[in-house]
Write a structure and sequence with these properties.
The protein has a domain of about 55 residues. The longest helix has 20 residues. By secondary structure, it is an alpha+beta fold. The protein has one helix and six strands, in the order αββββββ. The strands form three sheets. The protein has a two-stranded antiparallel sheet. The radius of gyration is 45 Å and the shape is rod-shaped.
């Protein structure tokens, strides 16, 4: 009999314990506001060095009131078509090697600002 009394008491206590945990929770606030302000600054410094090379050669002739015999080549005999008149003459000869070199140094600063407001109610 003692075992059955102990089991009965355990069942009663277990039922009471479970009923006590089943209660609801009610928040203690009704409304609220959260504000946030964030600022960040990023600085990027770049150094760019670029070298371009030519593996062949280039020869360019341009102008007005200019004539020559044969193909336009370095060392060709160029002359004024009408002597004494206005003329313009440009001759460019580029051989193999470094053709251009570019050097760029720059700093960029980026500033970001974020403001936010959160409003909540029950």
């Amino acid at each position: 009999m003692r075992l059955s009394n102990a089991i009965g008491a355990g069942l009663i206590l277990g039922a009471l314990h479970g009923a006590a945990q089943a209660g609801s929770v009610t928040p203690t606030f009704t409304t609220g506001t959260v504000t946030s302000h964030t600022e960040s600054t990023t600085t990027v410094t770049e150094s760019i060095r670029q070298t371009e090379f030519m593996t062949g050669s280039s020869y360019t002739v341009s102008g007005t009131n200019i004539s020559w015999d044969g193909p336009p080549l370095p060392g060709a005999n160029y002359a004024q078509t009408v002597p004494g008149q206005a003329f313009q003459f440009t001759e460019t000869h580029l051989g193999p090697g470094e053709s251009t070199y570019t050097e760029i140094d720059r700093t960029t600063t980026i500033t970001s600002v974020t403001d936010s407001v959160s409003v909540f109610t029950q």
